[in-house]
Amino acid sequence: MSVPIFLPLYAAELPTKFARPHTSLRAIMGYHALILSWASGNLNISLSSILDILHNMNGNQLRLLEERGHERRKLSMDDESSRNLVQAMLEEIDVRLATWITHDNEFERFTGSEWEITTRELALEWGAKIIHILRDEVRVRQLGCAHYVEAYESGRLAWQSIDVIG
Q: Under a CB-based contact definition with an 8 Å cutoff, are residues 102 and 8 in contact?
């Protein structure tokens, strides 16, 4: 099963043992380097266009993330359906985590334009966010369907309060 890293399902940090402290710094440097490339005339695109594209990419990922969260809620009828969904989510986490690790390791050796580096970094960030949100929701669901529904209705699930800026 091949899962694209830049996709829509769930979101935020990787488990500590897979966390890469330099990733956030690379992201900041990537965004700044992209703007510096634009300022030095190395990119034939307006700064507002670059920022619009990055904003739209984040917005699209967030929209898809929220849609999937609401779809999962519709599948949660009772403890049994929730248990089945948890099993599917755990399998998805395994696939996504393996894919994320592969892409992150490849990113370490990747050379390309600032634009390519920045968009790859954004994809890695969303891949990590999705993995985190799945893991968080699994933990809530394992407490029982009623606990999950209460968390959903009160907006306490990770995907309901995701920070797309940081």
A: no
